[in-house]
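Schema walk-through. Below, the input block comes first and the output block second. Nothing else is stored per chain. Lengths vary across the set, and this one has 456 residues.
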Amino acid sequence: MTGKELVLAAFRRETTPRVPWVPFVGVHGGFLIGMPAHEYLRSAEAIVRGQLMAAELYRPDGLPVVFDLQVEAEALGCRLAWAEDVPPSVVSHPLETLADITALPELSFDAGRFPVIAAATRGLVEKAGAGLALYGLITGPFTLLSHLRGSELFLDLLTDPDGVRAAMDRCADTALRCARFYLDLGVPIVAVVDPMTSQVSTEHFTEFIAPALDRVFTGVREAGGYSSLFVCGDATRNLGAMCATACDNVSIDENIPLVALREHAAHHRKSYGGNMRLTTVLLMGTPDDAKLDAIRCLDEGYGPGFLLAPGCDLPYATPDRNLRVVADMARDPYLRDIARVAAQASADAFDDIVLPDYAQEIGITVDCVTLDSAACAPCQYMLDAAVRAAERAQAPVRVKEHKIKNRAGVGMMCRLGLKNIPAICLDGQPRFISIIPDIDTLVAAIEDAWRAKKKR
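--- output ---
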């Protein structure tokens, strides 16, 4: 079987001779060809070269064309901040109210970077589409609305549910048009990437998000394509509802237990994928670490419909040696057996990472533990909520971001007792984990913590 045939068979939950391997290469393709992200994502020729280089090095069965959740937002009027090693981030939100969405122009595929993506897609379909399962990644309706509205959307869920429904309908229309854009270019799989859905309750997911997603998934199926729901962050509480949507596949990151996904996927007859650890293993780990994590995923996830994949967009500077050995583990059971025997487990106690003496510090310290607020939408809005709440709170406040893309950040996460991110801690106490609070709630929590601290 070709890689493409293997992936599509897994999407149908058919028995396959081995587990398909799908590294989600986004701006990492720029790293492979020596080009910064802000140039790579603006060049069709570079995207084709980067993805073909990834195909040569990592022997995947499937690859995305691009991994950038700001494309639609940019074309609809959001301003972006560009960086060298991550996709751009949204820095302006055109919707002052949800009702303003009716004034936005219809998405044009001549706007923004859509012409670049169209050219890159044609090039990859021509050069690799026969053997590789190409994914067209689109921004999910709720994440797109988050880009357009900003963090106020989380208050809107409580105060303007009808407005949220109407705006989600508009974003679902946009997502379905983007899905057809890729399908018309010859891409067989549309992955709806909606990381902000990990930040809401199951009730809000079922009421506001699932209907919009189902419109997209149903449209993809009617057009002859396959669909995937890709959610980053700790969406464990929403896992059953995610698997109950009309998608063909659900993909997750390391925040969700792979065994739990396997059980839900089996119940709903869904394909499923994930969930290799991005930073601690693939970016900062050794080849032995990568081997062991690949084996963990293969052991925990193995079954009809499983695809081995990283938990999200690969960090820009991920060492190619770590991804090469994952391909070995996916393709060769003998090499897996050798790795099991030869691997040496080691643990870092982070003894050198010391938490501040919060009791002695003046004011309240708000620690935001993130993947990277410049590259991760939930992390960006979590940090934004913390900064805005700090400005409004009637208390002295310091906001600190700890990115787990380095050892110090991972150490802070461990010392604070966190297992999932993004998270907000107040004076060292975890308060909001993988769910973004509305500004009023966070301001109240900060002020409560300050009143309690002054009494001590």
